[in-house]
């Protein structure tokens, strides 16, 4: 019976990975029926514009009133510092192995903190470029005509530098978008599991609700909602495949860790030997769809509200 349970759990995870990879490949190969660009083409176009001044969604805000997103820069920096502080608090309360072994929430928060640091750098770069652009426009009437040739040469040099650094920025920007989209589902999933399952039903000698645990399972969602309200990033449906692959990777790591000798499961229902383990795995797989749909709806609802309110949006 235990062998069958292990086999079914493995089959569910393997099936989720295979389905996600198939969906990713299909979205790139299959042209849309309405003649519009496929989802990945939109992302490619957005990434290609990262190096152009004022065109990147990486640092711009959907609120035109805060252009070029000084408020977004401040919120990202504050969130990155706060999440890093909570992670340090977590590590000091327990130990560093918690980042690998304890819960998906800890690894999700680590990913969120690192992504916010990248986003903060993008925002700082965007605000710097915006300031330089306005400074150039302000000083332009005072420039002597004899310097026009020099100005053109400098623009060519800057353009060449942008071309050289553009590929790296494009890849980093795409990575930031993917992580943001994965976090949308992962944060909802970990909070639902924690507050709806772990806290009410799975207290043990290894787990008790305290301040650091409460912060870990609340700050992520709060800062992500603030980011969603202010940023100008897309949240396409097909990126749920990355969210599924992220969780499957975590589950596989848990399997490996326990094969190496650790006994306690932070999420007891992930133990393939637990009663009804295959059913738990199947329900968690369905919960991925629900959690990503919830955050996708939040993003769509936020966009609709910003378009309908009196404050102009981008």
User: Runs with pLDDT <50, length 5+?
Assistant: 33-37, 41-55, 137-164
User: Hey, roughly how much beta strand do the residues contain?
Assistant: under 5%
Helical content band: over 70%
User: Can you count the helices?
Assistant: 9
Count of DSSP strands: 0
Transmembrane segments: 6-25, 69-92, 112-130, 178-203, 209-230, 242-267, 279-298
Keywords: Membrane, Transmembrane, Transmembrane helix
Structure summary:
This protein has helices at 2-29, 39-48, 70-93, 98-101, 104-139, 148-201, 211-230, 240-259, 277-308. It has 314 residues and is mostly helical. Keywords: Membrane, Transmembrane, Transmembrane helix.
Protein traits:
314 residues; mainly alpha; 9 helices; transmembrane; transmembrane helix
């Amino acid at each position: 019976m235990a062998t069958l349970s292990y086999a079914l759990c493995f089959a569910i995870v393997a099936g989720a990975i295979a389905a996600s990879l198939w969906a990713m490949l299909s979205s790139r190969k299959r042209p849309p029926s309405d003649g519009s660009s496929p989802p990945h083409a939109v992302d490619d176009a957005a990434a290609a514009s990262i190096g152009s001044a004022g065109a990147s969604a990486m640092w711009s805000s959907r609120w035109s009133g805060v252009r070029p997103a000084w408020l977004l820069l401040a919120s990202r920096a504050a969130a990155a510092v706060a999440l890093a502080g909570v992670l340090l608090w977590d590590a000091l309360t327990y130990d560093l192995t918690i980042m690998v072994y304890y819960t998906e929430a800890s690894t999700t928060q680590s990913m969120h903190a690192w992504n916010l640091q990248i986003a903060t750098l993008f925002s700082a770069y965007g605000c710097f470029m915006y300031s330089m652009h306005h400074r150039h426009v302000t000083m332009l009437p005072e420039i002597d005509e004899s310097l026009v040739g020099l100005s053109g040469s400098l623009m060519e040099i800057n353009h060449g530098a942008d071309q050289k650094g553009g590929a790296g920025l494009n890849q980093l920007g795409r990575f930031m978008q993917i992580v943001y989209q994965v976090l949308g589902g992962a944060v909802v999933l970990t909070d639902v599991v924690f507050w709806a399952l772990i806290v009410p039903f799975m207290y043990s000698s290894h787990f008790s609700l305290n301040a650091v645990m409460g912060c870990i399972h609340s700050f992520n969602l709060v800062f992500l909602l603030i980011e969603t309200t202010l940023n100008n990033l897309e949240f396409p449906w097909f990126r749920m495949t990355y969210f599924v692959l992220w969780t499957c990777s975590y589950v596989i790591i848990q399997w490996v860790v326990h094969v190496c000798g650790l006994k306690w499961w932070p999420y007891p229902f992930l133990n393939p030997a637990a009663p009804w383990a295959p059913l738990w795995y199947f329900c968690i797989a369905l919960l991925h769809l629900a959690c990503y749909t919830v955050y996708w709806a939040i993003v769509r609802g936020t966009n609709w509200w910003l378009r309908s309110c009196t404050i102009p949006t981008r």
